[in-house]
Amino acid sequence: MKSINPDDFKVTAKIELSKIPTNLFNEASDDDKEEKLDKVQVKLSELQDVMYAHNRYGVLVCLQGMDTSGKDSLIREVFKEFNARGVVVHSFKTPNSAELEHDYLWRHYLALPEKGKFAVFNRSHYENVLVTRVHPEYILNEKLPGIEKVSDITPQFWENRFEQINNFENHITQNGTIVLKFFLNMSKEEQRQRLLRRLEEKKHNWKFSIMDMKERERWDEYMHYYEEAINKTSKENAPWYVIPADDKEMARYIVAKIIWEEMQKHTDIQEPEMDDTIKANIEMYKEQLKKGL
């Protein structure tokens, strides 16, 4: 299997999702993918330990994708070797009543990673320019000034939201949050197979939702709005990566490898030096401890 180059997946110019493959590296065996992922898992865990000691950066990983694209299992596998205190996962569902009393970015600010830690957004602030584009009636729940009915939501409204999201990401990156955004690019046929499996395999029945079928009917709309959102918000300080996701195991490895490779660019992340006083007296402290003091 050829090596993973993050630049092959990074969005640096306008894209068309329909022209981007949803499956790559077909020659790779499951054992090969698992072995490579295992190695990156350990590296990422060690990196997070160093980040915690360095205490200058937090890392925000945003995952977006259609239902069944593999977000949950990717999170479980990619971050499996982490200290449980080193990564926090937030799954953003329909805003509750308290969240709707604030602006749409409020709950995402609250979930940003502490310095030295990773935060994973399983679905993210981008739902506010994706689901709400397909279902603009949801915007009415936000009780925004001047928005009384769906027809009040103009194209400029969405342009403003893209600008607000870019400003949000500019703000947090300038204050020590490293942002990496991944779109799990799954084919409609692969989603059909995965939904069918949920119905055919009893242990997965609980995952099936009628809403999955209803949203699937609007696949083309979602792809259009994903494409627009990615094109308008993939910036050097907060890039999007489009990940071929028909092969879950391969998608996990690609995401893990990209996170690892991108983090290597932050060469200032180092373990802090021991305090000079401690360093000068280290032998004395060792002797005291050996004597049981």
Question: Can you walk me through this structure?
Answer:
There is one protein chain. This protein has helices at about 30-55, 70-80, 105-110, 130-135, 155-175, 190-200, 210-215, 220-235, 250-265, 275-280, 280-290, and strands spanning about 60-65, 85-90, 120, 175-185, 240-245. It has about 290 residues and is α/β, with parallel strands linked by helices. Strands 2-3-1-4-5 form a 5-stranded parallel β-sheet, sandwiched between helices. Strand 2, helix 3 (about 105-110) and strand 3 form a beta-alpha-beta unit. Helix 2 packs across helix 9. The longest helix has 25 residues, at about 30-55. It is globular and about 75 Å long. The N and C termini lie far apart (about 55 Å).
Descriptors:
alpha/beta; 11 helices; 293 residues
